Amino acid sequence: MKVFLSLLIPFLSLLSSCTKNTIYSNYYIFNENKWHTDSTIVFEFNNLENKKLNINLSINYTVDYPFQNFYSSYSLLDSNKKIINSKMIEFDLFDKKFGIPIGSGLLKQYTIDSLIFQIDSLSKQSEYTFLIRQSMRKETLNGINSIGLIITND
Asked: CA 12, 14, 52: angle at the middle one, nearest 5?
């Protein structure tokens, strides 16, 4: 049942994102819901559009996640490995006042989708790499099921 739910949530997020002109969508599922600090998740995609792109992250987590928030660092690289955009971001996964999970969910699993940035100037027909790391200063971060990169256009 646990495996089914960990696959169902990203799938439902993917379906909902399809209505927004999705250009790219991919998820990385963590073994045993653990993200190790030395693990960088890599997404590679080609830009097929010449429009403004919305770069979104989808985080699927459990109520066993030990913190209220989640810090992550990302970098978007072009085909020459030049950094186009790089930043550390924070996601609130639980309400600060009441401690209830934020996002859509079912039973003990929740998903939060967030626009992290928009970009106008990606070259058409070029390859890009999106790197993401957890920045929580814990060697092993428990309670993160999967992380997804969803790229849409307006």
From this structure: 145
The first and second tokens of residue 6, run together, are 């960990």
45 bridge partner residues: 128
Which residue, among 85, 78, 84, has the nearest Cα to 127 in the 3D structure? 78
> What pLDDT score does 116 carry?
95
Could you report the per-residue pLDDT of 87-129, keeping only the tens digit for each?
Answer: 999 999 999 999 999 999 988 999 999 999 999 878 878 899 9
Q: Name the residue type at position 113.
A: D
The band of 20, judged by pLDDT with boundaries at 50, 70 and 90, is low
The DSSP H or E segment spanning 65 is: none
The residue ranges of every structural domain in the chain are: 2-153
Q: What pLDDT score does 19 carry?
A: 53
* Domain boundaries 2-153, corresponding CATH code: 2.60.120
